[in-house]
């Protein structure tokens, strides 16, 4: 029987394909640092968002796949670029702080922004800086999902001297790197473009800020640059110890080399940056990390999601209506394809997750490695005895017209007597999510319509057929009878028959398999519902 390593090396799921690239990198032996380093980046000018979750969860999946096929230890760094200068005032900061933050952004061709970790905390001084505040939010965010990571702060690493040797190496290769990078920037910016951004004191603010300047002289032996201050003075300043910061594409390459990053993924919008940073890393004598480019999200109108537009979903919005595993599945599925991210995709992802979870129990070891549930749960998916789809729960809430979990459990316990909130915790969570989703999205859109004469005849026929079935009739039997009734009446096709049932009985344009729904809701209740419709009662 093949070993777990052999199965992992043969698995076709995309995290294994990525992991094999990393394994190939070290086929002759482990790296000198003793571990393989995976990295994700975070820009703390704003709070963590759904893209942050996507990048970390996908990287975690690749890391776990690698650990399944290799004995080399693996670590994950969540690296915060908190030494960046403030470029714009985020929308979510308190109004009272906006005037001050507006003075901290870069507004002149020669003066950059104030580093995020040098700006006071605009949220009430609960942290030592704006950057520290958002770093804390990042750690809270990642800890919430149980990610195994090590937090790294650019400010702390720059100031500690850990980057100093590599920064001096950049200085020694300054001209070649500058010429490589210069072709990617505009002509106007090129006039005062330098690789190093020296920090100078802003006397009005009393804070350091970056200076966009082309150095007058490069001094590799002393590890310094000479530049002209806006007041005309020539200043010699070390590039080490946090006195300067590299422009970001050179900074990315320098970080890869200094930390020994072996794998990092990024969005489609950074393809050119990955290429340039990789070239700079090679100039410095390093090997760029293995990379993976994922597609960006679209809204329901197929437009690119923008935080400033607010046309996408937040993590909290998704988790209000569905478990985090369904969001992880959304991130797992087809990462190289642009996907629409809006509320209507949530139920489908919940049901798909439940389907994969149910299949996992009966699959062999090789098939399990291809199952998204294996990757979502790091090889240890939970076991759930009661399998009821989210769409059925939504329709149950819809027909019952309730936002009370206990009402739904009254029907569920009849369908699955062995299930209870205690014995089926996954199902219990889904019931709560179904109630929330029904309340906010289904209920406001419900629109019942009255049946026409032909549909009334079909419903009378359905009531007669269902009345003849025993209470314990199986869902498949019920479904077959529903099909047969539809065939006996002049509907264009069976799809039209089911759509009529959904619109007349549920007030929706679509629903679950009617057999499963009736088995859950009950024959008596379904018959009563049909009777109310035939009696001319309005269900809305």
Summarize the topology.
Layout: H1 4-10, H2 14-25, E1 36-42, H3 50-69, E2 74-80, H4 98-104, H5 130-144, E3 150-153, H6 154-160, H7 164-172, H8 174-182, H9 187-190, E4 196-202, E5 207-210, E6 217-219, E7 224-228, E8 234-238, E9 244-246, H10 248-259, E10 263-267, H11 271-283, E11 290-294, E12 297-298, H12 315-321, H13 324-332, E13 339-340, H14 345-360, H15 365-368, H16 372-376, H17 390-400, H18 405-415, H19 425-442, H20 453-467, H21 475-487, H22 494-506, H23 514-521, H24 523-534
Parallel strand pairs: 1-2, 1-10, 2-3, 10-11, 12-13
Antiparallel strand pairs: 4-5, 4-9, 6-7, 7-8
Helix pairs in contact: 1-3, 2-3, 7-10, 8-11, 10-11, 13-14, 17-19, 20-21, 20-24, 21-23
Span of the ends, CA to CA? 60 Å
Helix content: 40-55%
Mean pLDDT: 91
Shape: elongated
How many helices?
A: 24
Proportion of residues in β-strands: 5-15%
Q: Oligomerization state of this entry?
A: single chain
Radius of gyration: 30 Å
Low-confidence stretches: none
Strands, total number: 13
Strand adjacency order, main sheet: 3-2-1-10-11
Q: What's the story with the biggest beta sheet?
A: 5 strands, parallel
Structural class: alpha/beta
Outline the structure in words.
This protein has helices at 4-10, 14-25, 50-69, 98-104, 130-144, 154-160, 164-172, 174-182, 187-190, 248-259, 271-283, 315-321, 324-332, 345-360, 365-368, 372-376, 390-400, 405-415, 425-442, 453-467, 475-487, 494-506, 514-521, 523-534, and strands spanning 36-42, 74-80, 150-153, 196-202, 207-210, 217-219, 224-228, 234-238, 244-246, 263-267, 290-294, 297-298, 339-340. The chain is an alpha/beta fold and 540 residues long. The strands form four sheets. It has a five-stranded parallel sheet with strand order 3-2-1-10-11. Strands 5-4-9 form a three-stranded antiparallel sheet. Helix 2 (14-25) crosses helix 3, helix 13 crosses helix 14 (345-360) and helix 20 (453-467) packs antiparallel against helix 24. The model has no long low-confidence stretch (mean pLDDT 91).
């Amino acid at each position: 029987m093949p070993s777990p390593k052999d199965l992992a090396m043969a698995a076709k799921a995309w995290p294994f394909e990525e992991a094999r690239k990393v394994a190939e990198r070290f086929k002759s032996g482990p790296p000198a640092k003793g571990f393989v380093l995976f990295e994700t980046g975070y820009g703390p000018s704003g709070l963590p968002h759904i893209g942050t979750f996507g990048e970390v969860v996908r990287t975690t999946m690749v890391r776990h796949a690698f650990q399944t096929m290799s004995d080399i230890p693996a670590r994950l760094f969540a690296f915060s670029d908190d030494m960046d200068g403030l470029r714009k005032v985020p929308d979510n900061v308190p109004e009272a702080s906006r005037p001050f933050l507006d003075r901290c952004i870069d507004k002149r061709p020669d003066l950059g922004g104030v580093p995020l970790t040098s700006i006071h905390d605009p949220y009430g001084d609960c942290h030592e800086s704006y950057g520290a505040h958002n770093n804390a939010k990042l750690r809270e965010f990642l800890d919430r999902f149980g990610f195994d990571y090590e937090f790294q702060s650019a400010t702390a690493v720059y100031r500690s001297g850990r980057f100093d040797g590599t920064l001096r190496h950049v200085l020694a290769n300054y001209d070649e790197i500058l010429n490589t990078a210069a072709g990617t920037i505009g002509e106007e910016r090129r006039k005062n473009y330098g690789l190093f951004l020296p920090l100078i004191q802003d006397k009005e603010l009393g804070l350091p800020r970056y200076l966009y300047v082309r150095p007058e002289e490069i001094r590799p032996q002393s590890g310094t640059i000479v530049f002209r201050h806006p007041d005309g003075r020539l200043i010699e300043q070390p590039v080490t110890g946090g006195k300067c910061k590299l422009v970001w594409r050179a900074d990315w390459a320098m970080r890869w080399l200094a930390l020994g990053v072996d794998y990092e993924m990024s969005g489609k919008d950074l393809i050119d940056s990955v290429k340039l940073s990789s070239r700079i890393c090679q100039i410095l004598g390093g090997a760029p990390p293995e990379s993976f480019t994922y597609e960006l999200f679209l809204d329901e109108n197929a437009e690119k999601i923008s935080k400033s537009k607010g046309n996408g979903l937040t993590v909290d919005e998704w988790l209000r209506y569905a478990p985090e595993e369904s969001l992880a599945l959304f991130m797992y599925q087809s990462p190289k394809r642009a996907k629409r991210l809006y509320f209507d995709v949530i139920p489908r992802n919940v049901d798909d997750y439940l389907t994969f979870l149910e299949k996992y129990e009966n699959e062999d070891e090789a098939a399990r490695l291809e199952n998204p549930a294996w990757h979502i749960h790091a090889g240890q998916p939970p076991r759930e005895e009661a399998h009821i789809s989210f769409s059925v729960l939504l329709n149950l809430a819809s027909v019952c017209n309730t936002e009370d979990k206990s009402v739904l459990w009254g029907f569920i316990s009849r369908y699955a007597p062995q299930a209870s909130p205690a014995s089926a915790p996954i199902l219990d969570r889904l019931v709560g999510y179904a109630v929330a989703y029904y309340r906010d999205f289904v209920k406001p859109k419900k629109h019942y319509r009255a049946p026409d004469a032909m549909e009334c005849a079909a419903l009378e026929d359905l009531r007669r057929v269902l009345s003849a079935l025993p209470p314990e009739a199986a869902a498949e039997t019920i479904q077959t009878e529903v099909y047969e009734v539809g065939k006996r009446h002049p509907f264009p096709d069976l799809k039209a028959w089911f759509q009529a049932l959904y619109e007349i009985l549920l007030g929706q344009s679509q629903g679950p398999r009617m057999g499963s729904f009736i088995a859950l809701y009950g024959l008596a209740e379904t018959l009563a519902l049909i009777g109310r419709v035939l009696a001319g009662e309005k269900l809305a």
